[in-house]
Structure formats: C-alpha cells, structure tokens
Design a protein that fits this description.
Structural class: mainly alpha
CATH architecture: Orthogonal Bundle
Helix content: 55-70%
Radius of gyration: 14 Å
Strand content: under 5%
Order of helices and strands: HHHHH
CATH class: Mainly Alpha
Length: about 110
C-alpha cells in the first residue's frame, strides 16, 4: 500500500519540522492564534502529542489575551502535562523555554 503523503512536496516530515520551528517563533512573539493555526495544519504529519502540547501552550496564551485567566491556566497545565516527556528539547524546539514564555504570559 502506497503512503498517501509520498508524492507531496515539500515532504510531510519537512513540513512538520518547519511548522514546529515556525510555531516556536510565533509562541515567543505571543502570536497565539497564528501558532494555533500553524500547529493545526500539521496534525497527523509527525508526533501529534508534541503538536497538541504546543497547541495547548498557544491556547493558554490566547485565553490570557482574551481575558480568561482561569482557562489560560488550565491550558498551560494541559500543555505542561503533554510536553513533560519532551523536556527540555525535542525536534530542535526548546520546549522548556516555550513553557516558560507562556507561563510568564499567563502569570503576568
């Protein structure tokens, strides 16, 4: 059975890595909505648990920006839980630093 992504360009693994790096920068710049969109685009192309954990961080930042501190804290905790196995770094993404960036945003 042929891989459904075999003929895609750029290859799925390149799109996945690129999206992780792009989302990392977006999270660092507090571009919460953009990070959510970037991560949603690559679900199913790589490690979905890492993607979902990073998406929780983006959702936490977005909730804080939207004024919902309680939901922001919950999203941050979900992100920490999912990203625990990936600390301190995975796929050349500094996961520990991203958690700290979002923690500072939520607790400010």
């Amino acid at each position: 059975m042929e891989d459904e992504h075999e003929d895609e360009w750029p290859p799925p693994d390149a799109r996945y890595r690129s999206a992780l790096w792009r989302a990392e920068g977006q999270l660092e710049r507090a571009e919460w909505g953009r990070a959510i969109d970037t991560l949603d685009d690559v679900l199913g192309l790589g490690d979905d648990e890492l993607v979902r954990g990073m998406r929780h961080l983006a959702a936490a930042g977005y909730r804080m920006w939207d004024g919902d501190r309680e939901r922001a804290r919950k999203q941050l905790e979900h992100g920490r839980r999912r990203l625990g196995p990936y600390l301190p770094e995975r796929e050349q993404v500094d996961v520990a630093a991203l958690i700290e960036v979002v923690r500072r945003a939520v607790e400010s």
